[in-house]
Amino acid sequence: MWLASLAARRWGHAVSGYLGGFPMIGGPITLYLAIDHGAEFAARSALVTMAAIAGQAAHMLAFSYAGRARGAVAGLAAGWIAFALVSSGVGALPLVPLGALAIAVAGLAAMARFLPHPRGAPTLPAIPPAELWLRLAAAFGLAAAILFGAATLGPTVSGILLSLPVTGSIMPPFTLALYGPDALARLQRGFITGLTGFTAFFLVVSATVVPLGIVASFTAATVAAVTAVAAYSAWRRARP
Questions:
Q1: Average per-residue pLDDT in the chain?
Q2: What is the pTM of this model?
Q3: What pLDDT score was predicted for residue 8?
Q4: Cα separation of 53 and 158, whole Å?
Q5: What count of Cα atoms within 13 Å lies in the side-chain half-sphere of residue 215?
Q6: Most buried of 6, 11, 28, 173 (most Cβ within 10 A)?
Q7: Number of structural domains in the chain
């Protein structure tokens, strides 16, 4: 959250979205789950987390349209409801890696198709210290709840919660309220790029953490995430 917020200051809302969508919160938490609860627990959790990207897409779309119409608070409420409905449905499915990947890709495609595009020139937000600390406190609280509740909730619910839009529930409301709808569009479009890395990371973990072990799996997943973001960014730049 700190890096994503500072990136907005230096490079703008789109780059902040890249980092916001990247698995910088869900990835470390999944590593801790693998260490504490075993590789099979982490594999199942990662599988559900990847499929629940469709819930993140629903959250982003609902927030985008409700937030523009009714304000950031109403947008956040709509986003959380959309995430809960879609992710709970996904979590009830008998998931396998390719099926979960297809669901995640469908969610990313919906975001790319239906999220508004920015229209004005990009600007660099100030993000004062008080706002930055509020973002960090909210992110820490959500992440701690997921981590410490894992033993009680189990891998499926933990997987859904790992896909919980932590950064997506903090950065868009601040951005819309303080910097306007055009900045929100840039941020959310950046999230799509970051979520390609999120998808790649959890695909690799779900498929390899049991046969390869924790160190090899998470190393490969990190490489896959960075590669996916770079490839998607290059594809976007190449489009007319």
A1: 82
A2: 0.80
A3: 60
A4: 14
A5: 0
A6: 173
A7: 1
